């Protein structure tokens, strides 16, 4: 069994559309220049709703914090254990969430350089995650 497909809300649709083109796009407030992830409908910093713009980011970043999952209860994830979930500080100043793939979970550490990778999820398409930066 594979992990379930993400549920694409109207709010997050631009995030997923960019991912299908192998681009990582996050919302940034043009008024206060703050990045936001996960998708929101109003900037929590300045309170404006019409100032949020989807912008592409490089996908380069470092591990801010992480957790190694050894026992997953959700269907489709148990077969993937152990796996790493992490918050990633992107070069642009945004913080993104995802798995750290294709490396030994014991090698993951805070400050580790990573880069976005796009994982093919059967029946869905591409899902942004992260891999060790070359
Ligand atoms: Zn703002």
State the helical fraction: under 10%
| SS element count, helices | 1
CA distance, first residue to last residue: 30 Å
Structural class: mainly beta
List the strand order in the largest sheet: 4-5-6-8-7
Ranges where pLDDT stays below 50 over 5 or more residues in a row are: none
Mean pLDDT: 93
**Small-molecule binders:** zinc ion
Number of strands: 8
- What is the radius of gyration? 15 Å
Q: What count of domains describes the coordinates?
A: 1
H and E order: HEEEEEEEE
Shape: globular
Present the secondary structure layout.
Elements: H1 13-20, E1 24-29, E2 35-36, E3 52-57, E4 60-69, E5 83-90, E6 95-101, E7 113-121, E8 125-132
Parallel strand pairs: 6-8
Antiparallel strand pairs: 1-2, 1-3, 4-5, 4-7, 5-6, 7-8
This protein binds zinc ion.
Features:
134 residues, mainly beta, 5-stranded mixed barrel, 3-stranded antiparallel β-sheet, globular, binds zinc ion
């Amino acid at each position: 069994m594979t992990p379930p497909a993400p549920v694409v809300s109207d709010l997050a649709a631009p995030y997923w559309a960019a991912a299908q083109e192998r681009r990582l796009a996050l919302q940034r407030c043009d008024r206060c220049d703050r990045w936001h992830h996960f998708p929101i409908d109003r900037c929590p910093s300045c309170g404006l709703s019409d100032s949020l713009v989807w912008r592409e980011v490089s996908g380069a970043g470092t591990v801010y914090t992480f957790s190694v999952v050894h026992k997953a209860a959700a269907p489709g994830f148990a077969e993937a254990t152990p796996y790493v979930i992490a918050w990633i500080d992107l070069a642009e100043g945004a913080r993104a969430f995802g798995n750290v793939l294709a490396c030994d979970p014991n090698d993951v550490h805070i400050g580790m350089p990573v880069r976005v990778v796009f994982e093919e999820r059967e029946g869905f398409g591409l899902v942004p995650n992260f891999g060790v930066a070359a």
